[in-house]
Specification:
By secondary structure, the chain is an all-alpha fold. The protein has four helices and no strands. The protein is globular, with a radius of gyration of 11 Å.
Length: 65
Amino acid sequence: MECYFCRHNFEEINFRDVSLLKKFTSSLAKIKPRKKTGVCAFHQRRLAEAIKRARFLALLPYTTR
């Protein structure tokens, strides 16, 4: 399976694109692992960084209770 970001030629992952980032988080707002999402290692690191920045700016929740 090819990486989602490689397939769609993403230059960078924008932390303000909340709808895209939500696809890569679980129902409990955890970051999904590479095995589940099929993202390459390079983009997984960038994705985790973008999700953490979005959480810090309160665009995404840390947890859902």
